[in-house]
Amino acid sequence: MPNSSSHSGNTWFCIRLTHLSLNSLGVAVNAEQAAAISWQHQIWQCNHAAQRAGIQAGMSVNHALMLNADLEILERAPEKEDEKLTRLSHWAYRFTSMVSIYNDHTLLLEIGKSISLFKSLEHIHNLINNDLFSFKITASYGVSDTPKSAYVASFTPDPRLRRHTASELVSASIEHLDIDHKTITKLHNCGFDSLGDLQTIPGPELGARFGKALLNYLDQFWGLVPDPQTAVTPPETFHASVDFAEPIHNLQWIEQQLTRLLTDLAQFLLLRQLVCRSFTWRFYHQNNRLLKTVTIGISSRDLLTSTDKAIATFEQLTQLKLASIQLDGSFSSIELSSTQLVPVTLFNDDLFDPSPDTEQLNQLLDKLSNRLGPTALFRVVPESEHLPELANGRRSALQTTSMRETRAQYTANQVLQDEPLWLLEQPQRLSQQAQQPLLDGSLNIIHGPQRISSHWWAKLQSRDYFIARQRNGRLVWIFYDRSNRQWYLHGLFA
What we know:
alpha+beta, Alpha-Beta Plaits, Dna Ligase, domain 1, 4 domains, 4-stranded antiparallel β-sheet, 15 helices, elongated, DNA damage, SulA_CellDiv_inhibitor, Rev_trsase/Diguanyl_cyclase, UmuC
């Protein structure tokens, strides 16, 4: 028996997607309608209903139709299989940082440390199985101490998943080895049926008869030589979609699918420690033609405190937005994506923000903006300008400003200390007599001047500001433009 003690610290969890060709095209394995995938005029894969009719992989399409004239046949789409496998590898990142795409239909997860985090192997298995069931993905699982033995273990029927060692799989059929079919046929012709049979032949002789590739495969299977796996690195963007077997006419019919996609987004944010600033829904016709695009902005940043809270917020904003639109026609698939993802660390400068109720305001702004539109609301923000008419600007209500930035801008434009709250949009030119300003009569200057000089790089502005009293007692804010020697009214005091 080979000694595999060198790999005893690893635990590999295999997810073998047994019906990836069907599932990637939105066909359920247990669907009542008999369905099959064709490839090069032969049956590539079929669901259970087709199997009950006697249809099998490798059978010609014409033969399959003779057995069941109502058989639904779909052309295999390898690009969709690759896309589905890649998306599932990103989903599996929630269980471990070591996720590998083993072959064209299998994922391998190294979960040695994750077992402690999730309390038990059984809990991890249940979470993975429940997620894949909701994704309508059919899979078989295997757990062992090497990547290749975990793959073979996925063919072992076991109602209660347990961790096998490679040495416990000696009775496994060579049909389940992940090697080329030509080598398997050659092994069968020589009378080898199980892994145990291969152990009866010395390694050098086995390599001489069947090639070094088989010998290296077996050494990696038993853990005698390293078998490094390439880890998948999820992107800093989120993308997920759902395909429907029948066209959908009513958004209320897919609430469960919307919730599932938003749950995936919330879990993705939690695992990657990201804050979502916006996400986009896309609805597609049967021919993948875009029907509708809906973008939802988010300003609240406390959603990381609870995944449930994030999901509830995402759902509420989605419902508000979708309630205000109409879909002109049916759709066959929906897509959720987000590229506006920001690391949580970028918000650390607001840790001691003295306004703890800011998040409640942000949540209200999210609801109003997504209901009324992104341009319906704006906030007034200080600008780094000395001229009073330029000192305040407009910014989208969803575009936040850090406390540090706000304080810096506020300090920069505090040149004039006696500025009134009510400014005219543009300074109003005043009449003057003997170089003294007039506004419904003469003005009595009671305070000033305060001088500002700015915009020397464009057109120099040099002003002396005064507080003056009209004859009726009202206080006004005026300035004398030293460049053109003219008086202007700029503001009114309450």
